[in-house]
């Protein structure tokens, strides 16, 4: 009996690369990773041996905005499991590129699911939406349940509302085994530097290496977040598709440590030997026109169904994130912008 095969869209991202490592370690599945031809491969360093040898990991090139490339990818993969993680995932960027965000995230999901409908109709499919769909939630509705109304606060969040609804539509209309998740803030090593906690860690690492003045530039520090570790997130995604998957189901997934973005910054600065010298400066370019400012999830539905619970403490996540940037800055030096 041949091994199961998983298709991971966005395999070069933080989540996709960690998920590939998890699958290689905990299963005998084969992996097909979808990426764009220009995607950097840095995050795949731990699985490059498998890619080069062709033993369990194979990469295919495509673009969510190109229907033909997606059809070819799905036909080549013939997956048993699909983790649709690829997206234009930066909320701040979506204000500058709303149409690209909508096309990539909403129509890209349609292209993936329509290709799967004809090529791999029995695949178990995870469509990754986002907690950003809930947007601006009044305090009386905290913690946020799955049935909380959507109030998206960015073009990215609007696109993820579309992604969420597209996934549920394909489950209901065509009987496909599609489940959607609204993952709340998750971070750790390889987090992109356009996200708040990662740009803080990156700037601190650059300060420690003497590459920039001891000033951390920030946006809105008052937003409340519940933080999970990316390594807990990918374990949740694996359980989603393997633990009695329910077609059409939708789940909140998130951590247990709630704090403001400012608290995250304070924690990261406290980890630095330069902490006494570091100043904080608000950069207007880092502020969103509106912000999803109360992101605290109720994850009981997913936990009850799968038995999943986050295991990695906030303190370890933050230390590992800062150490990740220290290592990158130490090796690659001043080629980085302080974005």
What do you see in this structure?
There is one protein chain. By secondary structure, this protein is α/β, with parallel strands linked by helices. It has 2 domains: 5-187 and 229-253, NAD(P)-binding Rossmann-like Domain (Rossmann fold, 3-Layer(aba) Sandwich), CATH 3.40.50.720; 196-225 and 257-293 and 312-335, UDP-galactose 4-epimerase, domain 1 (Alpha-Beta Complex), CATH 3.90.25. It has helices at 14-26, 48-53, 67-77, 91-96, 98-119, 155-174, 196-208, 230-242, 261-270, 300-306, 314-332, and strands at 5-9, 30-35, 57-61, 81-84, 124-128, 177-183, 186-187, 215-218, 224-229, 250-253, 257-260, 279-282, 294-295. α1 packs across α8, α3 runs parallel beside α5 and α7 packs parallel to α9. The longest helix has 22 residues, at 98-119. It is globular. It starts with a strand and ends in a 7-residue tail after the last helix.
